[in-house]
Amino acid sequence: MTGLTAIDVSGALGLAYWAETSIKLGVALIVIPTAALLLGYLFLLKMMAFMQSRLGPQDVGPYGTLQLIADAVKFLQKEDIHPATADRRVFRAAPVVVLASSFLLFVVLPTGPDAVVENLDTGIFYAMAVSSLSVLGVLMAGWASANKYALLGGLRAAGQLIAYELPLILAVMGVVIQADSLNLQEIVRAQAEGEIFGFGLIGNPFILTQFIGFLIFMISAQAELTQTPFDMPVAETELVGGFHVEYTGFRFLLFFMAEVATAFAFSALATVMFLGGWWIPGFDFDAPALNVLGPVVMLIKILVVAFIIFWIRFTYPRLREDQLQKFAWKVLIPLSLANIVVTGIFKVVL
């Protein structure tokens, strides 16, 4: 590879390790609330309003653009209440664990040939591993709240996330087999330098050859986000909000930020693995210009994928718990295993 890694660039600028780490941390800390605000405003407020023939927020800022910031200020002003019988240490740590899981996902997401916080050789393995940490935070919140609805929500979430983690990972395996790498940059390169029946103008976006894997990944991501039709852990009509029913103020805000930021991160992973990531047809893979243009292209693709996620959320009714589990174990997992077998056969034959 001729492109420099993020560490090479910082080393060339003469930055110390602490300065390099501080810059990376600062970028990630900026990206998460920005992603939450962007998706929250575009989809939770405006798109849902238009789909339901409403205007959405209009008064706070131009066209309601500052509504979420106003809501954040409101949450920060609210009293941080702890249930009298709650385990306070675990109760306080739970939303931090959930948000940390989202935060760690952004570490390996590439947005250009050099624009990546850490270009790990096992990037996709790392992403799948840290995305599972949110289960611990949800269980902590449900158990520590000392509330039967919160506990039921936490147990439902754990069962759901474990069930849908399997097809999520199996869907990724098809991409790994086809790209011959666990490195997210190399997965983008495989799509950029690939060909479709000898035609290589647009590369070979894996959504064409791994459409079944893409479909399984999107369904599993929807369940991992506990969004409709997989929102059993937070079902208001049954559990009054589920595992975060006892949370107020900024701790509830952390749960909201984690949910929307994780939706952004999963959309970014789908973009990297199935839509060619940040690469633009006609450009050399290591072209320096892609460090500027790549993030813009990446953002557009992420918004398209996120639109699909939130569109499903606003369209379909909630599944029953038994339907949810049967769909994962009897449909998605066998289908993802079949996709791996077919991908392996074509990889060997071709």
Structure in words:
The longest helix has 35 residues. With 350 residues, the chain is mainly α. The N terminus is likely disordered. The chain is globular. The protein is built from 14 helices and no strands. It has one domain.
Which descriptors apply to this entry?
0% strand; 14 helices; globular; 67% helix; mainly alpha; 350 residues
| Biggest β-sheet description | none
Give the helix tally. 14
What number is the mean pLDDT? 84
Total beta-strand segments: 0
- Rounded to the nearest angstrom, the radius of gyration is 21 Å
- Secondary-structure element sequence? HHHHHHHHHHHHHH
> What share of residues is helical?
55-70%
Q: Report the structural category.
A: mainly alpha
Shape: globular
Strand content: under 5%
Number of domains: 1
Query: How many angstroms separate the termini?
Result: 25 Å
As residue ranges, the low-confidence spans are 1-12
Write the topology of this structure.
Elements: H1 6-12, H2 17-51, H3 67-77, H4 88-105, H5 123-131, H6 134-144, H7 148-179, H8 184-192, H9 206-209, H10 211-224, H11 236-239, H12 249-274, H13 290-315, H14 321-349
Helix pairs in contact: 2-12, 2-13, 3-12, 4-5, 4-6, 4-12, 6-7, 7-8, 7-10, 7-14, 10-12, 10-14, 12-13
Structure described in brief:
With 350 residues, the protein is mostly helical. Helices cover 67% and strands 0% of the residues. Residues 1-12 have low confidence and may be disordered.
